[in-house]
Amino acid sequence: MARHLSPRAFGTRAALALVLALAGCVGGPDEPRTVRSAAPPPRAELAQDLAPNLAPNLAPPADAVPGLTPAAASAPGRIGKGSVKVALVVPLSGQGASLGAAMRNAAELAMEEYQQPDLQILVRDDRGAPDGAREAASGAIAEGAELVLGPLFAANVSAASVPARAAGKPVIAFSTDASVAAPGTYLLSFLPQAEVDRIVEESVSGGRRSFAALIPENAYGNAVEAQFREAVARKGARLVGIERYVPGASEPAIARLGGLITGAGAQADTLFLPETAEGLPAVAAALTKAGFAPSRIRPIGTAVWNEPRLFALPALQGGRFAAPDAGGFGNFAGRYQARFGTSPPRVASLAYDAVSLTAALARQYGTQRFADATLTKSAGFSGIDGTFRFRPDGLSDRALAVYEIRNNAASVVSPAPRALAKPGT
């Protein structure tokens, strides 16, 4: 039975008046972009302590007001004074420095909202480079860090994992590149593979049985193709055709799919389009020109579609995509802005969840707080962006919502589940 972990009750409670638009972090591996979401505002939910049959909840009460005093720091580069030391390795200079600074702020906010748990965060700058990540992780471990949170970029994750693995310390990293996951190196991020699984599952459960795909010849296309093939087969559906294309030149691939996706005799009932917001308008225009009718064949995609300027494209009307539920991030963004005076980038919630998870596990699991068996509990953990679960191979599963595009907007047609399905289903 999973234990429901929540922050201690806050002394001051008030409703937040500020609701910010969701900024969606999507893109290829380690190439985040900031976009807005048309999803509804967050709903308040009450935290519960030790509630049975629920994943541990890392989020504070929705109406909690963050403290205005900075988190206690015993020395530069440290947040908190607790006995349990954890490293936060992010870029504070070099590539990604603005993201790293926001993630450091989010870590501080998490510590404040947990009312200073028995935790000490050793903040280390990886300089946006592998050598810096390796040095930062090694130095923090030498100072007593039991766990490394970060880095953000794939090459830096690989570098930081070397000293961590040698010391027997786990890593919870923020990269979206699944290739850097490994036993002991877990990815707390928005993996496109989870989005593919969710949109295929929702399509099949709604009666869709025959899938085709147009996939760009780039890193993102490579990341999703294998997962798409596996998900369709696992759900017992039929794959009638896949075509790859050079970004910006989708017409030949559309022509090769021919009668599979156009005309009265089209064999597919669903078309997978894992294209970015930059490339999708041209692909959509080419599909419309070729006679593609979304009323007959439903287009589906991933969170890279979560961009309002795409919602008016004729070829996407009635299309669906999987993405994190907007509610949790909207609430977090309001608290972040109230505390730091600026809107957070989408990845900031990952650092918040990582620190909240660390605090919850340190409080509940004693010496087994960061053991592999603890981190990979099948019930998972409930954070800002919904329920997530680490797998033994280092990848993660995440509960995602499904949105439908109609009339220049995207609305939820299948809410993110509160609990994750059994692994492999």
TrEMBL record:
InterPro entries reported for this sequence: BCAA_transport (IPR051010), Leu-bd (IPR028081), Peripla_BP_I (IPR028082)
Signal sequence, start to end: 1-23
Matching PROSITE patterns: PROKAR_LIPOPROTEIN
Keywords associated with the record: Amino-acid transport, Signal, Transport
One Pfam assignment: Peripla_BP_6
Transmembrane regions: none
Residue ranges constituting the Leucine-binding protein domain according to the UniProt record: 83-408
Family: Belongs to the leucine-binding protein family.
PANTHER family given in the database record: LEUCINE-SPECIFIC-BINDING PROTEIN, PERIPLASMIC BINDING PROTEIN OF ABC TRANSPORTER FOR NATURAL AMINO ACIDS
Name of the protein in its database record: Penicillin-binding protein activator LpoA
Species for this entry: Methylobacterium cerastii
Gene: lpoA
